[in-house]
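Bug report (template v2)

What were you trying to do?
Predict the complex of my protein with NAP.

What happened?
Run completed; filing so the output is reviewed.

Input:
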Amino acid sequence: MTTAQGAAPEHHRLIIVGSGPAGLTAAIYAARAELAPLCIEGLEAGGQLMQTTEIENFPGFPKGLMGPELMLNFREQAERFGTTFVTDDVDEVDLEATPKVVKVGPKTYTADAVIVSTGATARMIGLESEQRLLGHGVSTCATCDGYFFRDKELVVVGGGDSAMEEATFLTKFATKVTIVHRRDQYRASKIMLDRARANEKVEFIEWAEVAEVLDDGTGAVTGLTLRDTRDGSERRIDAQGLFVAIGHDPNTKLFTGQLDQDENGYLVTQAPSTRTNLEGVFACGDVQDHTYRQAITAAGSGCAAALDAERFLASIGDLPDASVDANRDEAEHPTGAATVGA
Ligand code: NAP
């Protein structure tokens, strides 16, 4: 097999596409099993945590740490055991072929197994001020950031289940949470909407969209300009935090037509495994999970994907000669020694 440019493709046992907590955990486990995985990490490597500030709920870090620092730790750990990285975006895949084909610019890679961990992207309103204040009062994750908004007045934008859930959750910390929605019909389920409506700390502003996020020169959110979606009139409200809860888009465009997706575009896996509809292709992290969407759950599914891939490679006789099957040995026969897997 040759590429269009005539160069032979570079073959790997396992290619991991994506480098958030799911992809890098898969890389750590696969590398420790001596599969020498290739991780195509993307130009914006590290996933959604690269855009967050402090993380306090990732187990093992009692003092918390910054999102980018956590992801650099993941990467360093994956590299230490023999993961190779390509810092570029995948342009095209053929996952039905044998071996599987992954194209990155002029280069073609092939693999016996592929783990897809391309994540999901939180939808944003699209304002310059929203982008600038992301991590400084603007957030897309109440579970991650709610704790930092104790005794503050907050706004949640959206009219779906996420907006209702986030607003209700944020009332644990905030003095007041205002849900801003662009019309008076809600996509949210009745039970979630009723729960938010029954919460005395939650207020609703309908027929409104956020026209500007204000910081009054402080570098942190101080208020919002709201625009009436019927007559275009604008007004200011005070708020110290804006939670954008207008949905997520799974990053699955590359795989459309090859990997089964649900009605929202998320990859479908054969629970409780990470297997997709194609043999030797596994999916983990937010690209196949619109329910939990946490770094720790993504990491857990990345571990599962690596173990599934390892078993698949063993079943086709493609494990390294001196494979120590390190992960499974330790899971089944924990030694308690200081340097083994968890
Ligand atoms: P969603 O159902 O797609 O709702 C997105 C909301 O954001 C809609 O109300 C939409 O308004 C609004 N919106 C979209 N773009 C906007 C923009 N540019 N500016 C202002 N508003 C905008 O998304 P979701 O709430 O994230 O839910 C996704 C899926 O996960 C759903 O199936 C949901 O049921 C599920 N979910 C379930 C739970 C739970 O059961 N615990 C929790 C969270 C999510 P319009 O209605 O006007 O289009």
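What did the reviewer find?
The pocket of NAP is lined by residues 123, 125, 157-163, 165, 182-183, 187, 209, 246-247, 290 (CB under 6 Å). Residues 322-326, 328-339 have pLDDT under 50 and may be disordered.
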